[in-house]
Amino acid sequence: MPARITHFARALAIGASVLAIAHAAAAEGPTPDPITTSKLDAPLFYQLLIGELELRSGDAGAAYQVVLDAARKTHDEELFRRATDIALQARAGEQALEAVRAWRADLPQSLEAHRYLIQLLVALNRVPDAAEPIRSLLNLTPADQQSALIMALPRFFARSTNHKQAAELIDQVLQPYAAQPATRGAASVAQGRAWLVALDTARALQLAQRSHEQDPAAEGPALLALEMLPGTPAAEAIVIDHLRAKPASNGIRMIYARVLSSSQRYGDAVTQLDVVTRNEPQLAPPWLTLGALYLELRQPKQAIAALEKYVALAKSDASAASNPAHDAVDDEDAAPTADRGLTQAWLMLSQAGRSTTRSARSRCCRAAPR
Fold first, then answer.
1. Phi, psi at residue 19, to the nearest 5°?
2. Which is nearest to 96 in space by CA: 88, 105, 104, 107?
3. 3-state secondary structure of 63
4. Residue 145 DSSP class
5. How far apart are CA 241 and CA 249, in angstroms?
6. Taking all residues of the chain, what is their mean pLDDT, rounded to a whole number?
7. In this structure, which topology does domain 249-319+339-355 adopt according to CATH?
8. What is the rounded distance in angstroms from the CA atom of residue 285 to the CA atom of residue 301?
9. Exposure of 287 by Cβ count < 10 A (0-12 exposed, 13-18 middle, 19+ buried)?
10. FRET partner for 40 with CA separation of 20 to 30 A, picked from 30, 155, 166, 261?
């Protein structure tokens, strides 16, 4: 028996079973609430089922055609996405591009269709072709969300093989937004990040400085400057000035402390973390990092104090997380992180304790009469 007939027969059997169960449930149960009529009629149901069976049997080309045809008939965004994903799984870039273009043509207001199209064009090394859909995506995005999208634009080009070309395109499409007060800061940061990836640090620094001058309290220019450290020392002035304008910017301080630590500027990193622990004394992670830095500076007493504070806060957080009334949205990820942090803290406390003992013995030996 031909494979396609077998698939069709199997689809009929499954479809009949589903319909029988649905009719039985309707006959036995109470009168259901009114529901919205679905576009999924019987022929379309069988068409999609056959498409999925074709995919499982290894015929991605047939599955793609079936699902894309259904998407065009129903104007359904989920089906366009499914057809695109089938082509991507089969590494058929041109077919994926065909599906996304059909998706965008059929649903021109779809933001997701635009995002898919931009990413595909970049992946297919057609960077110049991405300019038009980026402009369209920016126009469709609500005004209060445009800055966030502009800042994220360089991520679309992460896989580009020509970073200079990508930076030039971003400059081009953001030119109107660089002149508007509401979006000019975000535009400068996005342009700067693109040029930083293109290894033009002088231009990236200039854009970061321009954006910072427009709004010293904005975090975007400071984050861009942090990405440029330690290779571009002049960028540090942007970070320092931002922290002066916004002393409570603890996220920037912690990243800055990490950069300082990686450059072995442990004393400067401690200074930043001291401010964070004063601003938010109940935040556990800075205490752990502070303890590690004090160990590097061979100050075991200060390390012990910071690490003991971390252990107390981490245990308190773990106790709250284990409470059934606690909102456990991120508990699955938070628990292993807390366990690792406590293990690190105990190890460092042991190390600090040994250092304190050795220091005390050394003082005793020096003080003993000869």
1. -65, -40
2. 88
3. helix
4. G
5. 12
6. 85
7. 1.25.40
8. 19
9. buried
10. 30
